[in-house]
Amino acid sequence: MIDFKKVRKAYPNGTVALHDVTLHVDDGEFVFIVGHSGAGKTTLMKLLLREEKASSGRLMVNEFNLSRMSNFKVPYYRRQLGVVFQDFRLFQNKTVYENVAFAMRVIGTSPRMIKKRVPAILNTVNLLDKIHNFPRELSGGEQQRVALARALANNPKIIIADEPTGNIDPKMSLEIMNLLLKINKLGKTVIVVTHEKSLVDYYQQRVVTLKDGEIIEDRVGGMFEE
Hints:
The protein is built from seven helices and ten strands. The protein is α/β, with parallel strands linked by helices.
């Protein structure tokens, strides 16, 4: 569950990025967050990742109150999230296996569990045959699938994808989106931040449109204007 209640975010320079945003996302939903540059998408992401704190209002994610949460609790909160970025953010000197395993090692997962779980996750994203390859040996779409596998490594409740198709071709974009829908059908909440109008129109999921820091539309199967 993600629940924004009249969330406002103002930066020290006086810029107000979000104006009293109210938004509720139930467990297991698939939601596109769309809007032009400067609409507030990035700030919304940063609040969800707890990279920034709301200036006012309340933001709840499951049992965590992000508006009041101490910095000490942030790492524990983030274990509930799997995040996929536009630029992949893979370790270039690590294999596909090692990239996914790293996310599990940092939270103390046992070597036995890592050895069992990593191939299973790579199979889910259709990359088991690339398990020993390095990122430089993969296409852009394959690298994004590794990033998605890493996001799934610790079995998060929520997947947040920030422009996940921004650096790959249209065919690979559809493949990544289909994987995100597959993951959503497994019970994960999926939030996709994008400016790709064609993808939003094609998949006919819930669309939340931001403009100038405000939600101007929230509907299922909607299309957004360029």
